[in-house]
Amino acid sequence: MSKRVRWRVLLIVLIVAGMVTGYIAMGYANARRERVGAAGPVTFSEALRRGVKLGLDLRGGIHLVLQVNTADALKAERDEAVDLLQLQAREQGLTLGPVELPNVRSFAVGVTPQTDIAKLEDTIRRFLPDWDVSAAGGKWTFTVKDLARRLIEDNAVAQAVETIRNRVDAFGVAEPLIAQQGTNRILVQLPGIDDPKRVKDLIKNTAFLELKLVESGPSTDRTALLAPHGGQVPANLDLVEAAPAPGERQQVWYLVQKGAVITGRDLKNARPTQRQLGGSAVSFFLTPAGSEKFGNATGANVGKQLAIILDSRVKSAPTINERITDQGEISGSFTPEEANDLALVLRAGALPAGLTYLEERTVGPSLGLDSIRKGVTASIVGAVFVFAAVLLYYRLAGMNAILALILNAVMLLGAMALFGATLTLPGIAGFILTIGMAVDSNVLIFERIREELRAGRAPKTAIENGFSKAFATIIDTHLTVIISAIFLFQFGTGPVKGFAVTLILGLLISVFTAVFVSHTIFELMYGRRQHIDALSI
Amino acid sequence: MELFRQTNIDFLRYKWIAIGLSWLLIAIGLFAIFVQKGLKFGIDFAGGTQIAVQFAERPDLDRIRQILQTANLGETGIQRYEEESKNRVLIRVQLQQGEGRDVSQEVQNALRVGLGGAADPARLDVNREGRDNLGARLAAADPDRVAGRPEVDAASYYGQIAERVVERRSELGIFRSMADLDSVPGITPAVRAWLKANTYTGPFVLLSAENVGPQVGADLRKKAVLAIIWSIVGMLAYIAIRFRSLPFGVGAVVALLHDTLITIGILAVLGREFNLVVVAALLTLVGYSVNDTVVVYDRVRENQRTPKKESLEAVINRSINQTLSRTVLTAGATLLVCLALFFLGGEVLNTFALTLIIGIFIGTYSSIYVAAAIVVIWKNLRAGRRLQAVPAPRPAAPAPPAAKKKSGRR
Fold first, then answer.
1. In the CATH hierarchy, which fold is given to the domain comprising A70-146?
2. Is the pTM of this model over 0.90?
3. Considering CB atoms only, which of B210, B230, B349 is closest to A378?
4. Which residues, 6 or more positions from A9, have their beta carbon under 8 angstroms from its beta carbon?
5. Under an 8 A CB cutoff, do A378 and B230 touch?
6. What is the CATH number of domain A3-58+365-526?
């Protein structure tokens, strides 16, 4: 064995050993991470099965894409700005006309001849720097600045991500993925969850809590409720439906003020409580800032009703008996479980805005198992076919190709484990497809060698020429597929992305095995002999 | 063994026939897409809800259809899939989620009620419950009396039992009877008795449920089209850089468009569903098709370098012949793999494999009759224009009639 060949063999052995070790090490790490609560050491066979992370389609679980309704957050911000302006106006003795709320991004305030314009301008400068003001027709219209709007929207999405993470953590899911996608979407992947409904309910529960003063109601007659206002919902009020009591089909309506006294954002803590009269309720506690707002509003409105609105439904509307500062109670028809879940989501943080489900994919555990079984069977059968064909066609050189292909597969598994790539069902297909395509390199080389032999070259020269002439073509064929796989990666989600990753890694490795490993094997086979009569190819 | 030993087939002689055939295939595909039934979009692209369930007994599709009709879910599609014995059914509901409706839950509830649920509503459906709920219920009942033992954490103790139940269910596919439930390994008689008294085996197991909203569907459609277009542009750029030749680049890209179009057309004719995985297969095909073309082109360039008085058509013919056994062998190996996936890979991989199978045939054919033919036609046209006055010379003497397995060295 020449020195050069010895180095090549050593390099190949080292790389393969590194990949195998890496795979097993990742297997132990993955198996340990997935075991939440369960005891006992990780066995070797378990580690062998866990080296490559499995995608949701193989492991079972839930994939959700949610959209954050950022308009909710803008609305809350606008309501706060209106409150602030009115509060300042009261304190400074500013006379203001009626407030109008044309859309979530703006509000308008009437300016009367009595209004002290200089004072108003000063107030705006000091307290509402994020708002553009334009005057027209006796009213000033406030529109949130673009930069501020973007900040509010970004914050709402970031906060929603955080909130969902808190809730999922409280539920106890191993290895959840919760990430922002684009401007206002959130991707949630929960592997291993086989109780989709419960988790969905937990996440879906926006727990968007608002406390608003009741103008009139409750009433089962919408028209009667709106009659004093000319049959329409006035600009500063909202018509909100009450959450139906069990067994109750009758709809009940409230007219409430548009601006919220406090929202879920002002909450510090929440817990389920047992009521003396039976039934469950949820107590909540407010942050200092929330307490101040709540205290002011309740103090000024003793005797009025306060609607407790959860996800745009009035849960209850108790009468304010006295000034309340730091805590309150949400009652309404709760079962103990519901009270428990509500307290959990209120505690984990209410979502700053509502969520809409855009995409939802659930894979049950049995389907995942079935898919693995089928994918692996198909792969093994495919590989056996390919091996048989190669062996039949190239005889001894075919063994060389098969060895290279097997090393290719081992290294691909190792690389996927080390890169933390996820194996999906299409990924399994990509895996075996890589094997099919990797044969191509060997075929290109072997055909070249045969041509060289036919042209009358000596076996050794034929091998060298074969490899060097096929090299450029091999690079070409690999690059073309890799280029399209990169676009696939860019486009794909979940399973398809897994396919692209597997394909790219597999092709990169196949360049190495076909060119370097196969060549080395030829040298091992024929290098020692001074003279070769014929090649088995 | 050798399949082709120094063949000398005059492939390009039939180029006009081949071009006619290509146009015919394209026309059939376009007809199927635009006139006949159109592309059958999967829910990835069309939006909607798709639920796969496995029944304990042979499902009565008419009955299921009836149940879903009364559930007010709009138009539904119901079909069996995979092996008959597995009793699997795919339910597709076009109705969009939203307005607080959870369509997949509604379908399941309707089926559960319609197919006769539990006599006693307090009982749990072991074919439905996940580990968390089952574990929690077991922990609450505590049949093994572990609550008093400080060294045992009841939640994780029963969590493991629930895990075993779910695992066994996955192995069996579905619990058909209480006897099946008895086969769960490693649980105590007390737990067994509790399961018997408090659970029942529901009529089906949920395999998967997917819901794609209209926005996401439209997004994915757009992204899929962009991905295909960009990868074709990428290929064009690669060929342009690699071969620095317009006719070669145009030939490769036309071949690529040809392959993609015909493959999509054939999928439409076969009424196959067009979904994300098919797009993945199409993009793989884009790579494969160019791969095949590049091998021929590489050979053409190499052969052009040798100073031989030979027409381009002859050079290309010789190159195709030289790479023929590689072409057939590689296509064959990839085809073997795809056939294994097609027959054994299950529902998801079936259409994926089919797309590749079609693509391999079309891609191999197009490397010769589209990519190479275009280069020849292009050069002939240019040559013809240059020699307007003189009649265009006939391309060098046509190769002798196809001589397969001709022995003897050159």
1. 3.30.1240
2. no
3. B349
4. A1, A520, A524
5. no
6. 1.20.1640.10
